[in-house]
Amino acid sequence: MIETVDPMLQLDPGVVADGVNNVWVLVVCFLIFFMQPGFALLESGQVRAKNVGNVLMKNMTDWTLGVLAFFVIGAGVSAAVGMLTAPETTFDLGAAFAYINDPSAWIGWFFGAVFAMTAATIVSGAVAGRMSYTAYVFVAFAMTTVIYPVVTGMTWAGGLLSGSGFIGQELGVGYLDFAGATVVHMVGGIAGLVGAAMVGPRSGRFDSNGNSQPIPGHSMLLAVLGTLFLAFGWYGFNVGTQATVLSVGDSGVAFEGAALGRVVLNTTLGMGAGGVAAALVSASWQGKPDPLWMANGLLAGLVAVTGAVPHVTWWGGLILGALAGALVLPTYRWCVDSLGIDDVCGVFAVHGGAGGIGTFLIPVFAVSGFSATQLAMQGIGVIIIGTWTVLATMVAFGIADALFGLRVSEQEEEAGLDESEHGVSTYPEFVAGGSREGPTVSADGGAAGGTQDD
Asked: Between the CA of residue 225 and those of 212, 228, 443, what are the distances in Å?
């Protein structure tokens, strides 16, 4: 008599865990990709109708050109920087680019790619309405091949700021940024602010005395829907970075429910607290709560906890989110009124400032308790990443200006970038010939689209 063995009893627990974890990573990557339409909607809603097609084109370029550039160059640059900035690592350029022909590395590459595309896309919201498309293509290429990869090389790839890097070994601790509050979002926010300053403000943004003048976006609906799309994708961004769903130990396979639970709870509390805080500040500042500011506060809360979610207590996540949300409007007004920078979608306030503050304060709310050394490392990391981003972005925009010219002509800006840059009209019935400016006007004479200046 032939005995049969249940094939399930022959499965290696490690193989099962690896399979589940890899499928989990793929699913969350698809979810992170869904942030791309979120960015497209959010930015489209905050620009005038005559520039919507241009914003959509730049968002598609970020993804299509970006993934190609990150595959061929960016991911390898990240690995190379990691090797060069760690004392006990031998530099091997071939090993840095080995992923290109290694099928077992492609899922990991894809996970890195969706994060890189997020950093690149943030920039488009700051320079909307006046930047040359050709120049933007160059900057997007630079973001995904050099600017962002150098930051990941110094951090996630084991370089300068990691526990094995030069600074990490000197301090005895590594830089904490779980899912990219600074590595992704602060980089994108700072790059956007620098780019907006170098491109210059939109025509009519400031009067002859330098006072800011509102230029309303054409659709509050699109902006808020985009915000909610981003919030949905953010669960992949944060919870997906907790890539180990099943672990293998002496007692067999274990489900990492507590780790996942902390990440999802802090993500949700940070989001909620950021939105509520921004609504309260806008009501105090402007007399009435503003939907667009609540949306921006919700996103800022998410950014602030993105680096902190596995490291801080639940009440720490709530405080970080609330702090970031409360600071969004004042930070934006500082950029516009004090610095005179026309950051159309407020990307520095939402991504730059919130990412830096949230990551710096991780040790203050840490589950493991406060560490002055860790706080010092967080401060050093924020400064180094911020400084690199400012300098590298200035170079990228400077080269783009020399090669192509950063902005369109006054006539092209007046006609709208949809028509002048692409020969299309997103709203042909509304923008006659591409020359009429939004926004629509409601029955009481108010603009249907919101603006950060309202």
From this structure: 27, 5, 23
Q: Which uninterrupted H or E stretch holds 140?
A: helix 133-142
Strand (E) or helix (H) holding 170: helix 166-171
CB distance 40 to 226 below 8 Å: yes
**Residues near 397 by beta carbon (within 8 Å), at least 6 away in sequence:** 135, 139, 194, 195, 198, 199, 406
* Domain annotation covers residue 188: yes
Q: Hey, what are 421's tokens? A: 């840059």
Q: Which domain holds residue 391?
A: 21-206+215-230+263-434
Is 127 among the domain residues?
A: yes
* Residue 451 in this model has a pLDDT that exceeds 60: no
- Which residue's entry shows tokens 């930051």? 151
In angstroms, the CA 452 to CA 274 distance is 16
Q: Which amino acid is at 342?
A: D
Q: Is residue 387 part of a domain?
A: yes
CATH number at residue 309: 1.10.3430.10
Sign (positive or negative) of CA dihedral 191, 194, 199, 200: positive
Q: What percent of the chain has pLDDT over 70?
A: 92
Q: Cβ-count burial of 153 within 10 angstroms (0-12 exposed, 13-18 middle, 19+ buried)?
A: buried
Q: Report how many domains make up the chain.
A: 1
First CA to last CA across the chain, in angstroms? Answer: 83
Q: Read off the pLDDT band of 454 (50, 70, 90).
A: very low
**Cα separation, 375 vs 176, whole angstroms:** 10
Q: What is the mean pLDDT of residues 225-253?
A: 90
pTM of the model: 0.91
Domain contains 335:
yes
Are residues 386 and 190 in contact, defined by beta-carbon separation less than 8 angstroms?
Answer: yes
- Residue linked to tokens 């942030």: 35
